[in-house]
Amino acid sequence: MDNTDNLLFKISSPADLKKLEPIDLVKVSEELRQFIIDVISSNPGHFGASLGVVELTVALHYVFNTPYDKIIWDVGHQAYGHKILTGRRDIFHTNRKYKGISGFPKIAESEYDAFGTGHSSTSISAALGMAVAARQKGEKRHVVAVIGDGAMTAGQAFEGLNNAGAGNSDILVILNDNNMAIDPNVGALKEYLLDITTSRTYNRFKDKVWNFLGKVGKLGPDARTLAAQLEAGFKSTILDKSNLFEGMNFRYFGPIDGHDVMHLSRVLEDLKRIPGPKLLHCLTVKGKGFKQAEENQTAFHAPGKFDRKTGQFIISSDTDKGTPYNEIFGKTILELALKNDKIAGITPAMPTGCSLSLMMKELPERTFDVGIAEQHAVTFSAGLATQGMIPFCNIYSSFLQRAYDQVIHDVAIQNLHVVFCLDRAGLVGADGATHHGFFDIAFMRSIPNIVVAAPMDAIELRNMLYTAQLDKNNRPFSIRYPKGNCHLTDWKKPFRETEIGKARLISDGDDVAVLSLGHPGNDVAVVIKRLKEESISVAHWDMRFADPLDEETLHSVFKNFKNIITIEDGILKGGFGSAVIEFMADKGYNAKVRRLGIPDYFVEHGSQEELYRECGLDRAGIEKIIRESVGSPAVSRLH
């Protein structure tokens, strides 16, 4: 490929970008957008969000002195252009791959990544910390938080705004307003932003004030003060809602076109000279520059492989067959809700991702997308439960971490019948450490009064969802299931109530006992079938529940086996295996218990297969630990 005339391929760092003339930024933006399209079409990742901030990314690195000046990207999946401009262009093809670069900003990866941002709405708080530290150390550095893709809807963003405004800190918040998260934004903030965006009178006046301020700025501080007072007075008269950000002591600028890179650069240069907390409101289009992504923004948030010319999705012939667990949840919860009018569905901004969109379409009055607000989702569910509703609160496992206090304080202590449906449990793959859902078994089983369940397959998931709404004790109920497919073809069976705290025997045996929890039990079953051909006899129980444990089964296991293996796709510290060892110690048993699960470190990104292999949780790893337990070290033939 001849890159002689390609400006992007001459940029190895922001220092190279700064050598260009302002007019060249338009070409750089075009090339950067095309580079992202070319790479992501064949190496899947987040797509639309980064396309939407191409011009903003170029302008920021052109104007600010990074990495001395700090830019924080929130949510981090909009930072692909940032990575490409900061020395990672030639390795960008490794994005999200095993041992490659992360799909999110990561401090350990680059000095240009000021803060790791996998979960949303943390940027303003982090920026404030950096700005205060700079002030304490006497450093004249700029700190910029770029917050978008729905991240402004979360409470922490407003906590950060409130604190930053009160302290009169010198930070710039850039609101990347594309009216989207993964699904369309919801809530009053969306309507507010739409209101100030579409007020023609206000925006005409704003342009005049900007011109006026530019002229009077040369006349001294008194003239500037008078101009600012005039602006505030007219603004409150013309558009009374415009005081939201300014009521928090932020100077509000905009809205401006987030795709006019030259204008953005000039505005950012001006804002560098204005002290104190400032907010620049940029209007952008998610998926900008790729027609299909602009027209179908949800599908092109993270689309997988696609044809870069036609936008057609490419389905690989070796694609994992089966039905996604989230789809099984979505169809089942709708089926249950049609029969039980007390059921409500709640999700924090993930209706399509968790398949609650199916219920939302059929029963919109009982389905609630509350925005990126996990804490609110849990307490809102608690409020519904106090009035006899049965809320099914669907939150990705890693996102529930953000609402742990609410689970304890607002649900568990009050013994409210909230059903937590924890999607993406276990290792999720390419999203990496910020998104793996392997802590929930440990942190949920540590809370009194919560049922902690993990179905092994689709039929078990359906029956657990059915059982959760029937629970006569009206307890909090947690059901976890992985990202990926269930391979049962005939899974839509009539509902059967599951006895809470009761395991099921999958296969009998004499040499070793395997106690599995959740989806890994399927791989255990395959391994045991293979080992049976060598007369290795393995007993296997699908334990179903981490809390309450099936003590009757455990008593029988410890009385009859001296070699016991526990298997879970959760963190080993404090997880299901730990619960079994606690039982052994409390009841006075003595056996050799080996635990298989997620080791004591943050697992990085890669395919699910690669990561489960790394943790020894693939079939070969399971076979290895069984063979070691029975003294048969033959080489595995399983994959």
Q: Any key phrases for this structure?
A:
single chain; about 650 residues; alpha/beta; Rossmann fold; 4 domains; five-stranded parallel β-sheet; 25 helices; 19 strands; globular
Tell me about this structure.
The chain is α/β, with parallel strands linked by helices. The protein folds into 4 domains: 8-199 and 244-295, Thiamin diphosphate (ThDP)-binding fold, Pyr/PP domains (Rossmann fold); 203-238; 323-486, Thiamin diphosphate (ThDP)-binding fold, Pyr/PP domains (Rossmann fold, 3-Layer(aba) Sandwich); 504-630, Rossmann fold (3-Layer(aba) Sandwich). 41% of the residues lie in helices and 15% in strands. α2 (24-42) packs across α4 (54-63). The protein is globular and about 75 Å long.
Task: Describe the secondary structure blueprint for this structure.
Blueprint: H1 14-17, H2 24-42, H3 48-52, H4 54-63, E1 70-74, H5 80-88, H6 123-137, E2 143-148, H7 155-166, E3 172-177, H8 188-198, H9 200-216, H10 221-238, H11 243-246, E4 251-257, H12 261-272, E5 278-283, H13 291-295, E6 323-324, H14 325-339, E7 343-347, H15 357-362, E8 367-369, H16 374-386, E9 390-396, H17 397-400, H18 404-412, E10 419-425, H19 440-445, E11 451-453, H20 458-470, E12 477-482, E13 485-486, E14 504-507, E15 512-516, H21 520-532, E16 538-542, E17 545-547, H22 551-560, E18 563-571, H23 576-587, E19 592-598, H24 608-614, H25 619-630
Helix pairs in contact: 2-4, 4-12, 6-7, 9-10, 14-20, 16-18, 21-25
